[in-house]
Amino acid sequence: VVVTDVALQNQPGSTPTSVLRLTGGNHSGANSTMVVVQLTVEDLNSVKQAADLAVDIDSCFVRLYQDVVLDMSSNGVAAVVVPCASFDEDVTPPELTRFELDMNGVYAHITLFLSEVVNASTVDPTQLALHTGRNTTATVVLTGGTVRDGNATSVVIELTKQDTDRIKAHEDLATGVYNTYVTATTSLLRDMNGVEIVAVPAHDAMQAWKYYEDNVAATVEFFDLNMNTGQLVVGLSETIN
Fold first, then answer.
1. How far apart are the C-alpha atoms of 92 and 52, rounded to whole Å?
2. Cα–Cα dist 63/150, whole Å
3. Which percentage of the chain shows pLDDT scores above 90?
4. CA distances from 12 to 48, 102, 132 (A)
5. Which end of the chain has fewer CB within 10 Å, C or N?
């Protein structure tokens, strides 16, 4: 069996609008009238990333290229497109596998790495909270943020200026990997089939995989002078000590 001579497509015939040719995978090795192919994680995520491919039984067809398999007499199978006989939708919830926090700049960034492709439009940053450790009360619950990536296995969230400054105001939070932990609710995001993520509770808060410290110096943005009180107010680009 030549696994790379197998493709999934969303329509019958030779001109489908969406095709994914497998890049690898394992197959059952026993001589049989049935062949089972285990897709690679990369190919499976590519299928999930396609909005019109294998979303239901009507958008799932398999293309077998010429001689993809041989019979016991070494005769190759003819090229053919076969409709899906049965279809099991994706009901496995995505999981947060690791995350990194980048505090370098006016706006901090959190990158989430997921177990499968997720729908970026469903990401709700307010369902994330930063902690100093496990089994601790949330120090900063995010109030918002902007998602910078499309549908993928990773999501970059640009934090608001307000949240970035709130994090920097805590001397015992997010100053290194050792005190950067995150929790999440199931409403944080959904996968491409609408399945919610597995929650990350406080007792099992996830420690940062990588941490990037703030190396950008604060700058003066404005100042006010009150000649009646003699008070000078200086506005800076970020929280200072």
1. 19
2. 28
3. 73
4. 19, 46, 54
5. C
Residue 2 — φ and ψ, nearest 5°? -100, 100
Q: How confident is the model at residue 34 (pLDDT cuts 50, 70, 90)?
A: confident
pTM of the model: 0.83
Strands 61-64 and 37-38, sheet pairing: unpaired
- Taking the C-alpha atoms of residue 21 and residue 76, their distance in angstroms, rounded to an integer, is 19
Q: How far is Cα 82 from Cα 84, in angstroms, rounded to an integer?
A: 7
Q: Using an 8 Å Cβ cutoff, are 99 and 112 in contact?
A: yes
